[in-house]
C-alpha cells in the first residue's frame, strides 16, 4: 500500500444520490454531495480523492472495474443496488482494491429488504447510519486520521 500522502481513493455513488440535499432531507440531510465532497477534500488533504455518481448499474460496474486495480481504495454507496445487484457484488470480488461499503442511513432501521447487501460479503468493511459523516469515517480507514 502506498503512503497516505499519495493514496488514490474514489468515492462511487449509485442511484438517486445525485439528489442529496433535495431528496428526503429528514433521512439524507440538506447538503448536496458535491458540496460535501469539497468538505471531504479539505478534511483529508493527504488523500487524492475522486468522485463518480451514476444511476445506471452498468456504469457503476464499469467504474469499479476501471479503478479497481490502480486505486488504493474505493468507497461505494451503491444505493438501492446494494440490495439487488449481484453484478456489483461480483465486480468488487473481482478487483484488487479494497472497497468500503457506505450508507448514509442505518439500513437496518429501514425496510426489511434493505437488510440484505450483495456488497458486504466482498467489502473490507461497512459504515452506515452516520449521515454524510459515514464517508468521512470510511476515509479515515485510508488515512492517518483515526
From TrEMBL:
PROSITE patterns registered for this protein in UniProt: DEHYDROQUINASE_II (PS01029)
Top class in the EC scheme: lyase
Any one of the GO BP annotations: aromatic amino acid family biosynthetic process
Molecular function in Gene Ontology: 3-dehydroquinate dehydratase activity
Assigned EC number: 4.2.1.10
Reactions that this protein is recorded to catalyse: 3-dehydroquinate = 3-dehydroshikimate + H2O
HAMAP family listed in its UniProt record: AroQ (MF_00169)
Function: Catalyzes a trans-dehydration via an enolate intermediate.
Subunit comment: Homododecamer.
Protein name: 3-dehydroquinate dehydratase
Taxonomic source organism: Flavobacterium noncentrifugens
Gene that specifies this protein: aroQ
